Hints:
By secondary structure, the chain is α+β, with helices and mostly antiparallel strands. It has three domains: 44-156, 2-Layer Sandwich (Beta-Lactamase), CATH 3.30.450; 231-324, Orthogonal Bundle (Helix Hairpins); 330-481, Heat Shock Protein 90, CATH 3.30.565.10. 55% of the residues lie in helices and 16% in strands. It has eleven helices and 14 strands. It has helices spanning 2-42, 46-53, 64-77, 109-117, 160-200, 202-215, 231-288, 294-326, 338-354, 375-392, 450-460, and strands at 57-58, 61-62, 82-86, 92-96, 125-127, 135-145, 148-156, 334-336, 359-364, 371-373, 398-405, 411-418, 466-469, 474-481. The strands form four sheets. Strands 4-3-7-6-5 form a five-stranded antiparallel β-sheet. The chain has a five-stranded mixed β-sheet with strand order 9-11-12-14-13, covered by helices on one side. A hairpin with a 5-residue loop joins β3 (82-86) and β4. α6 packs parallel to α7 (231-288) and α8 (294-326) packs parallel to α11. The model is unreliable at 439-443 (pLDDT under 50).
Amino acid sequence: xxxxxxxxxxxxxxxxxxxxxxxxxxTATTAQRYFQETTQRLNASVADYLIKEVNPFQDGKVNEEAxxxxxxxxxxxxxxxxxxxxxxxxxxISFVVLDQKVKLKRVELEPIQKFIAEGGNxxxxxxxxxxxxxxxxxxxxxxxxDNQLLGYVYITLASEKYETIASSLLGSxxxxxTFNSILxxxxxxxxxxxVLISWLTRHLREIVRTVEKFKDGDLEARVSESxxxxxxxxxxxxxNHMADTILNNIEELKKVDSLRRELIANVSHDLRxxxxxxxxxxxxxxxxxxxxxxxxxxxxxxxxxxxxxxxTKLVADLFDLSKLESGQMHVKLERLKVxxxxxxxxxxxxxxxxxKGIEIKSQICQNLPIVKADLYLIDRVIQNLLDNAxxxxxxxxxxxxxxxxxxxxxxxxxxxxxxxxxxxxxxxSLFDRYYMIDKNQQGVQGSGLGLAIVKHILxxxxxxxxxxxDSKSFTEFEFELTN
Length: 483
């Protein structure tokens, strides 16, 4: 965080330097233009005054003597000027310059003509005969004789001496501008910037400290909540939500781990029991086979067969549930009449129900619409629900199968059984794998996987299983199939 703070501070200082030097450059350039324009405005009529005092031409020729006198007089009054006499094409005919260092033979006429046309009221730069490629402020006028243009008087207002003095003063001006104003401004702005950066990054520092605590194991560490819509406030709130999600995920993982251990224990127990029974009776048959009666052998073989069926069903349920949870279960949707499945399933469980004196009733509406579903999987759902109903319905109880069309299309199927009902707090847990309300309830056998399989099968059909119970007298499962 300190590194970030100082990086931001140094970057800010660099920006201030760039802005400061840009300001100095712009200020100096503007000041120079200001002085040039002031000089030009002040001396705009110098060339007109010159030709009023003396005509630089006489009989179409340069009056060297008179021109020299007046030019030297003007330069004595204002040494910052240089006087040039031009022909109509801009060629330099004569000049009066202190050091005689004139390098151009011709001056561009366009700025001169524009200056004369505008009466010197606008800022215009012209060629500097001493410095090719550079420009200077000037004063100019045209010279006529008998309405014939003889040439131009071109006076530069920034002689070499002027430029030398101006350059030395400009350096001093820059130093004063830099140290007296810019430097002080930069220092003050930098100090204020440090304070502002520190204040603006306080939330970021808090976020970093909180993240460090969270990384070190303090999973309850949170950034102070803020209603602000700034990026840092959003970052802090996002971290809090992320931390809450991670914490919830950790709790879920703990629950999953607990369920995993419970699952292993349950699977081990459920597999061990039938295997132990099978192994025990097989050993009995091997040891006492010759001494057992035919009835005893058939009884033992029946127990072995039932245990084998139970073991096979448990393994099949585990396999199917794993495929359903991993999305590997192949689904073949087809158009089918669900009432036929209901009738067939009711017939299958009728014999088992009669052993407990349970009556299976059906209330299936006429002309049910055809639904689109996987025949095998929906048959599995109905059988699992009926199997669950028979297990938990007391002797002399009742099971009701109800199926009717729903207004928006499709079929609603309900399977209700009488009995003690289910406590409200346990309703949603029924669909967890290996969950049984009372696994040790006498006469109730099962793996606790049937309802979990029902839930996953209906989910891949785009449906949900619903459960209703008054916790006293009935339990009802409900689901819908669409067409």
